[in-house]
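Students often ask why we bother encoding 3D structure as a string. The short answer is that it lets us treat folding as translation between two languages. Here is a chain of 201 residues written in the first language.
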Amino acid sequence: MYESDETSDDGKRKRGEREEGEEEGFIRSKKTARTPTKVKSNKQKMEEKDELKEMIKELLRENKKKAKETEEIKNMLGEMAQEIKEFRKENKEYKEQMEELRRENKVVMEEMNTMKQKMEKMESCLEKCQKEEKKNNLLIKGLEMNIKGGEELREGVQNFVKSELGIEVEVVNTRKINDKTCVIEMKTFEEKLKILQNKKN
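And here it is in the second language, the structure alphabet:
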């Protein structure tokens, strides 16, 4: 009725018991053994080393290329800065020239205004003088004048005024227009008035 103490109720072997034929020193572990680490060959190491070298060379080439491009950009910027500097210098000179031209133009305009004022003054004076001269002039028509002019004409007109109007005047100058018309210039405006008054009478 009672089973042996050597086995469990379900017939399984108790922990720590050995099967028949097993020796104590050769008991196999039931744990799964780990996969051993792969060891790289010398060829693989050389290939990886060569790839690394190529990568470094490529990086160096790219850095050299970028350094060259950076240098070109620096040179371009330097040239642009020099051009801007020259442009500013030229612009400054241009402004100075323009300012000088403005000053000269101002002086010229002032001189022109002064000359214009002088011309206007001279014209006014000339007009006044012409009026002053004309105020002593008389236009004589209907007088037979066979002589051409000059001193003979002046004396002839003066004698005609004396004989026809009965007054003595001094004729300064005469200018013949045609055979029956001439302009005579009296010495004074009062003498001109005398002739006009006697003519009306």
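Translate back mentally: Residues 1-8, 21-26 have pLDDT under 50 and may be disordered. Keep this in mind for the problem set.
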